[in-house]
Description:
Layout (H helix, E strand, L loop, with lengths): L4 E7 L15 E2 L2 E2 H11 L5 E5 L4 H4 L33 E2 L8 E5 L7 H10 L5 E8 L7 H12 L4 E6 L2 E9 L3 H7 L7 H6 L4 E5 L12 H13 L5
Amino acid sequence: MPCGNVAGVLLAAGEGSRLGQPKALILLGGQSLARRGIALLRDGGADPVIVVTGAAGAGQLGTGPRAPGQDARDQDPSGEDSSGEDNSGEDSSGEDSSGEDSSPVIAVHNPDWSTGMGSSLRVGLAAVPCHCTAAVLALADQPLVGAAAVRRLISAHAAGASVAVACYDGQPRNPVLISREYWPEVAALAAGDTGARPFLRAHRDLVTEIECGDTGRPDDIDTPDDLARIVALARTGPFPT
């Protein structure tokens, strides 16, 4: 039976060129997508949470010290008033010690973020502490994924699954859990804007599919139209849980 902690790795490095700002900085319901992704992994039981930064730095994401003179105000597409994140609980180490949850958030910067998701995945996995037996991989631009999906993947790992993928109506999407023993191959196969997908396709026999359609939605945000649709879903739907 697997033992040890399961880390969470949030990929939040993209620039969001079609949105006009890094995706992780977009506010939904008064909370940045980065903060929502951290909460997703924390609430799902991942410990610690590693956030991979890139186009936006740790201070901008609210996971590290704010840059001097940086304006914390961002536009919230939901129409709610937001004046930025409260960084009073953060320290200069890049770890977030704010809030009631004391589990750490470790911000790591990917200097090669512009090359795509593959390099961010490698940076994130390299930052996972050695006591963790697996990592749940999540994307900052999928804010309707529910914490219950993360919990189900971690439960599957505790029951013996080495690779587990959240599915929605039978279709594999995110998040994904991968045991440490496979990280070198995951990192070697990740290239350009592809993350764990090449590894998963090469090792379908290892994958345990976990249905999560009742816990949330895997819709991602790439364009303004995507954002408007997700804002509407977040207002009216029962997701995420």
